[in-house]
Amino acid sequence: MAAVTTSAQAAALHPHDAHAGHDTYAAQLRMNRLGLWLFFISEAFLFGGLLTVRFFLWGADTRPELDQMIGLIVTSVLLISSVSMRLAETAMERGNRKAFSVFILLTALFGLIFLGGVMVFEWGLFPSLYPAHLTPWGDKYGAVVFAMTGMHALHVISGIIFILIVWNLARKGNFTQERHWGVESCAIYWHYVDVVWIFFYPALYLIGTAVHVTH
Description:
The chain has 215 residues and is mostly helical. It has a domain of 134 residues: Cytochrome c oxidase, subunit III, four-helix bundle (Four Helix Bundle (Hemerythrin (Met), subunit A)), CATH 1.20.120.80. The protein is elongated, with a radius of gyration of 22 Å.
């Protein structure tokens, strides 16, 4: 008889092997999750250090005069991106690959919008369009703003790359409803980056009295 069987047929023919394979995957999944959260703990020291530097150099009573509207917009965009990422993960869990592709690419787009807002309006990437009054080398305000937003932007960029890799793997059929650690890890990473910004946003834009700095 022909020797082609599906994974479901193989599981029916060899239930013990299938059960062992499931246990192996579950154990690997637990180790993967543990490793990812240990990585996040190490990252917390990095971002916590940046927050400490901000309060050490500026104190709690001053901050640079940043564009409040831009800060609110980019923060809102990043928070919305967490919603679209969750919808993408849920779509994969339900086997809806079309919805998954839409929502995960939408998340990447929101990430790019966030980066554009920070780079153009806070970094002054295009001074003829929107000149910035802070520089990384100007004073303690500019140095801290560029250090905090720059490090966070680096993580957003890596998150977008991660998203595109996961989207491409999903497009090739590498994930299933039951086994999609790549999607899960990508979603957790993106949510983590968003949570970091929730702490950075008030530290940069809200806490303290604005001090106008010119160079």
